[in-house]
Amino acid sequence: MTTIGRSPASHLEHVEAPGSPLPSTAARMLAVLRIATGFVFLWAFVDKAFGLGYATPGARAWINGGSPTKGFLSSVDVGPLQGFFHSIAGAAWADWAFMLGLLGIGVALILGIGLRITAAAATAMMAFMWAAEWPLAQHTSTADPSGSSNPVIDYHVVYAVAVIALALVNAGHTWGLGRWWAGLPFVREHRWLF
Question: Which of 42, 72, 112, 152 has the smallest set of CB atoms within 10 Å of its CB?
Answer without folding.
Answer: 152
